[in-house]
Design goal:
Blueprint: H1 2-15, E1 18-25, E2 30-32, E3 39-41, E4 47-55, E5 62-69, E6 74-77, E7 80-84, E8 87-95, H2 101-104, E9 108-116, E10 121-131, H3 133-137, H4 166-190, H5 202-223, H6 227-257
Parallel strand pairs: 3-10
Antiparallel strand pairs: 1-2, 1-4, 4-8, 5-6, 5-9, 7-8, 9-10
InterPro entries: Ribophorin_II_C, Swp1
Signal peptide: 1-16
Protein name: Ribophorin II C-terminal domain-containing protein
């Protein structure tokens, strides 16, 4: 059992990945892996380069350069890898404009290597990148709207109009007046209007006044009086209207019998 554990340990040590000659490079700055300083980017024309050498007996199945912002959001990029002697050289060249817009607006990015094969794995943060405030201001990033509770919508309904639209009122009034005058003229041509038989009787004028009273009642109803107030006024006018109207109709009936109508 001890011999098996020793063999496993030795195989792990022998095949473990070793990273050398790692560099982070921009157009104006170059840093080695694991340095305390950050690579500063200050222009959209910057080009980020990551290069490193992997010492391994076999080529890893997975090699990625991972960028992570300060909120833990990450994105992986696959570098080109070529064999050189007993090592593998990986290089990644990434223009700033090719970075996700979220990363372009992030103040700091952490650079990690993800290397793995069936036997071994390597995952380490090897450096960091800082975007200057000027560069962040040039970013076109807009936060996406998240699925979450929204502020309650308070809809304010418009008040009901107190009067009809002026244009409708003018057209209706014009048509009403024209209809009235047309009716008067047609009665005149047909002889239906005979002022010679008009009797100046108080009941006749009272009936006409009551008809005008109905018009005034409906006018105030249009201005805002309640339906109950309107019904009450109509009820008051109904009795006298029937009385004086019957007298007027009796008078017109007498004229018709006498052949004067």
């Amino acid at each position: 059992m001890k011999i098996q554990l020793l063999v496993l340990f030795l195989s792990t040590v022998i095949s473990a990945f070793k990273i050398t000659d790692g560099t982070l490079k921009s157009s104006k700055q170059e840093l080695g892996f694991f340095e305390s300083d950050s690579l500063r980017l200050n222009s959209t024309e910057e080009n980020l380069s990551v290069s490193f050498k992997i010492k391994s007996n076999t080529k890893p199945n997975q090699i990625f350069v991972k960028l992570t912002n300060e909120n833990g959001i990450e994105s992986s990029f696959k570098p080109t890898t070529k064999k050189s002697g007993e090592s593998y050289i990986s290089k990644l060249s990434l223009p700033f404009t090719k970075l996700p817009t979220l990363f372009q607006a992030s103040s700091k990015l952490f650079v990690s290597l993800v290397i793995a094969s069936e036997e071994d794995k390597y995952f380490e943060t090897v450096g960091s990148i800082e975007n200057t405030p000027y560069l962040i201001s040039k970013s076109t990033y807009k936060p996406t709207e998240k699925f979450q509770a929204k502020p309650e919508i308070h809809h304010i309904f418009n008040e009901a109009p107190q009067t009809v639209d002026p244009s409708i009122a003018v057209v209706f009034s014009f048509l009403s007046i024209m209809t009235f005058f047309t009716l008067i003229v047609s009665w005149g041509f047909n002889g239906a209007l005979n002022f010679g038989n008009f009797k100046f009787d108080l009941s006749h004028f009272a009936f006409i006044a009551l008809i005008i009273g109905y018009e005034v009642t409906f006018f105030f109803y249009y201005l805002g009086d309640s339906i109950f107030t309107t019904i009450g006024r109509v009820a008051i006018l109904t009795g006298p209207t029937v009385w004086f109207g019957s007298r007027l109709l009796n008078y017109l009936g007498e004229l018709r019998v006498a052949g004067q109508r």
